[in-house]
Design brief:
The chain is α/β, with parallel strands linked by helices. The protein has one domain. The chain has a 5-stranded mixed beta sheet with strand order 1-2-3-4-5, with helices on one face. The protein is globular. The two termini are about 25 Å apart. The C terminus is likely disordered.
């Protein structure tokens, strides 16, 4: 990963997502792509040091049915706990802020009830640094 990539990811994590991670956490960044499985969309996974796990997924074409958000919340929290991260952030990328953002937030909140170390962010796709943009909507071209 180049210095420019690291800098743009750090700006995104700190600025857009509001993370207060110390500088040393950004010394180790790992980006990987997780394929779709069992109805879950493809995910871009960002590991920030050993403290923060971020999953980025595209808003599906039919965002009106938001039932997939619970699966993303559950699988992300499980990965966070399994690998010992402090926090999990789920980022839903959209070409425009969706009208259904409130429903996404409500469903996410119900899925993580009592977990103050999991957060949802709905962002414009243009806010994502290079390399973090998911491909298509749920893997569709």
């Amino acid at each position: 990963m180049t210095h420019a990539d690291r800098a743009s990811i750090e700006r995104f994590v700190r600025g857009t997502l509001g993370c207060g991670c110390p500088d040393e956490v950004f010394e180790h960044l790992a980006v990987s792509r997780l394929p779709p499985i069992a109805g879950r969309p493809p995910i871009v996974q960002l590991q920030v040091g050993s403290r923060l796990l971020i999953h980025v997924a595209a808003l599906p074409g039919d965002a009106a049915t938001c039932s997939w958000i619970e699966q993303l919340a559950s699988s992300g929290r499980a990965a966070r706990d399994r690998h010992g991260y402090n926090r999990f952030r789920l980022v839903i990328a959209s070409p425009v802020p969706p009208a259904s953002a409130r429903e996404l937030e409500d469903r996410f909140a119900r899925a993580i009830v009592g977990d103050d170390k999991a957060h949802l962010h709905v962002v414009d796709r243009g806010e994502l640094p290079a390399g973090l943009a998911p491909v298509g909507d749920f893997g569709l071209p």
